[in-house]
Design goal:
- This protein has 229 residues and is mainly beta.
- The protein is 3% helix and 56% strand.
- It has one domain (2-198, 205-227).
- Strands 3, 4, 6, 7, 9, 10, 12, 15, 16, 17 and 18 form an 11-stranded mixed β-sheet that branches.
- It starts with a strand and ends with a helix.
Amino acid sequence: MKAAARIVAEADGHGGTRLVELYGEAPLLPRRTGPSRVHLVGGAAGPLGGDDLQIEIRVGPGAHLTVHTVAASVALPGPACSRSLVTATVAEDASLTWLPEPIVAARGCDHRAESRVELDGSARLHWREELVCGRHGEPGGDLTLAMTIHRSGAPLFRHDLTVGPRAAWFSSPAVLGDFRCAGTVVVVSPSAVEPLVGEGFARMPLAGPGYVVSAVAPQAHLLRARLTP
């Protein structure tokens, strides 16, 4: 299955945001749930092996957009590898908050989840990604999370994580160890923070405005707690 969704937000000229385009094909169905808030509703199971899913997000100058998903995505096995790609562009004085539910690497899956974000100089970003290796009582499949953020055309953040049988190193102490959940939050804003290391998480300044939080946990709800300020 090939499917695409597109979300476009613009400033309304009165200090608010208007959603000028909401387009989706199953299983990617965007629904407006607030003046500047959208939830993606899954119109079908997946991603299944062989699926190619693409989401495009554009936030115009001065606009502010928050995107959620209503449930976790479960990457399932199929006749070929599956792929999901999220591309986002955030203009000057605009902000994007991306808060999906976790992606679950079901046993036997072969999935690549990629995100690419382009920020103009004064754009702000809050981007969360969470991964769960396998459903309850099963080992996880093969899955790669790949994220790239550019600011003013220059690289700001790049992070790849691969788990599954083909990446035996993912269970080493240098990656997930005995944990089955991993996640990242990237915040691009003028706020300055000091490095911080706690139980199962680390917060590190970016080489630019903002910081990244990386965390691991045995269960999804503990991962969310460690990623939430």
